[in-house]
C-alpha cells in the first residue's frame, strides 16, 4: 500500500511558478515510479511527467511535450517526497494535478492505467 498526499497548488498569474509536493507513506519514493498527471474540466486525465524506475534501479525522467523546459520532476528520498516544479506557467496548465505510484516494472509510464495508487489532487489555476 502507498498513500500519496499532494500539496502546493494555488492561483498564480501567467508566467509565474509553483512547486507541487507529493508526500508518500507506506513505501519509499525510491522504490516506485512516480508520475504526475493533470485533469482539466471536461477533459481526460493526462500525463505530465514521471520519474521512472528501471529494472536496474537506475532512474530516468519523462515529460509530455507541452511542459518540456518549463516543468521539472524530482524527489527527495530523505523526505520521502516527490516534487513537480512548474515555471513559466500558462493558462492552459490550469487543472487538478495528481501524483501517482507505479510499483511494477516496465509498464508504460504515460498511461493512467499503469498506476496503482493516486493522491487526492491539488488545484492549479493560472490566470491570464
Report on this model:
By secondary structure, the chain is mainly beta. The strands form 2 sheets. Strands 2, 4, 5, 6, 9, 10 and 11 form a 7-stranded mixed beta sheet that branches. A hairpin with a 5-residue loop joins strand 5 and strand 6. It is globular. 34% of the residues are buried. The mean pLDDT is 95.
Task: Explain briefly what this protein structure is.
The termini are far apart. The protein is an all-beta fold and 128 residues long.
**Rg measurement, Å:** 14 Å
Give the averaged pLDDT, no decimals.
95
Count of beta strands: 11
Order of helices and strands: EEEEEEEEEEE
What fraction, in percent, of the residue positions are helical?
Answer: under 10%
Low-confidence stretches: none
Count of runs of 4 or more consecutive helical residues: 0
Strand share of the residues? over 45%
Shape: globular
Major sheet: 7 strands, mixed
Structural class: mainly beta
Present the secondary structure layout:
Blueprint: E1 3-7, E2 10-13, E3 18-25, E4 33-39, E5 46-53, E6 59-63, E7 71-76, E8 81-86, E9 95-102, E10 117-118, E11 122-127
Parallel strand pairs: 2-11
Antiparallel strand pairs: 1-3, 3-8, 4-5, 4-9, 5-6, 7-8, 9-10, 9-11
Amino acid at each position: 500500500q502507498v498513500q500519496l498526499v499532494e500539496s502546493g497548488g494555488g492561483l498564480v498569474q501567467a508566467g509565474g511558478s509553483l512547486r507541487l509536493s507529493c508526500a508518500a507513506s507506506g513505501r519509499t519514493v525510491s522504490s516506485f515510479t512516480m508520475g504526475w498527471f493533470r485533469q482539466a474540466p471536461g477533459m481526460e486525465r493526462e500525463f505530465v511527467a514521471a520519474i521512472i524506475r528501471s529494472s536496474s534501479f537506475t532512474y530516468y525522467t519523462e515529460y509530455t511535450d507541452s511542459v518540456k523546459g518549463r516543468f521539472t520532476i524530482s524527489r527527495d528520498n530523505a523526505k520521502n517526497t516527490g516534487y513537480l516544479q512548474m515555471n513559466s506557467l500558462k493558462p492552459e496548465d490550469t487543472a487538478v494535478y495528481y501524483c501517482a505510484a507505479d510499483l511494477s516494472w516496465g509498464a508504460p509510464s504515460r498511461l493512467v492505467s499503469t498506476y496503482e495508487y493516486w493522491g487526492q489532487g491539488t488545484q492549479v489555476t493560472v490566470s491570464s
